[in-house]
Structures are given as structure tokens and as C-alpha cells.
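HUMAN: You are asked to prepare a plain-text protein record giving the amino acid sequence and the C-alpha cells, both parts labelled.

ASSISTANT:
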Amino acid sequence: MARKSTALKFCMISVASMALGLSSASALDTNPESRNKSGTHQFYVQCVGGVQNYTLKEKGANAKEALKKVKAKVEQEHGTACYPNWEGLES
């Protein structure tokens, strides 16, 4: 029963957060053409070897420029255990 109670609490908190606008999600332009646009690009950093996956954002004239910055940060922090994948351009 404790498992149901915990799941119910989590669901209620999630719904309340969305209703209050507390969600940290922002709209992403995932159209491949947006890779050529300037702005804040979001990357999903996928890792192996026990390193947790995470999301990283970086500004750039385009996705390629932002990816270079992200790769440098990721390699400095995790070596070759992680690789960033472009998710979209923040809008």
C-alpha cells in the first residue's frame, strides 16, 4: 500500500506543479533547419560507465558551434564516457 501512496503523492505534486507553471520544461524547436539558427541549443548528454545522463544547454551561432562548446565541457568533466546529442533550439 505504501507504494501506491507514494505514487499518488508524486502524481499529485506533478499535477500541482504543472498547474502552477512550475515546470522547467521549455519549448524546443526540433526542426532540423533550426540547427542553422543562432540561440540556445539543448543537448542530451548520454553517458556510460556509471555516469548519469543529463541535459546541457549552450548558446551558439548554430548547433555546430554550440556542440563544440558542449563537447569541450563534457570531455573535460567526463573524458570519453559521455557524448552530447542535439535535442533542439530553445524557443
Q: What stands out?
A: Residues 36 and 66 are 11 Å apart (CA to CA). The mean pLDDT is 82. The chain has one domain: 26-90.
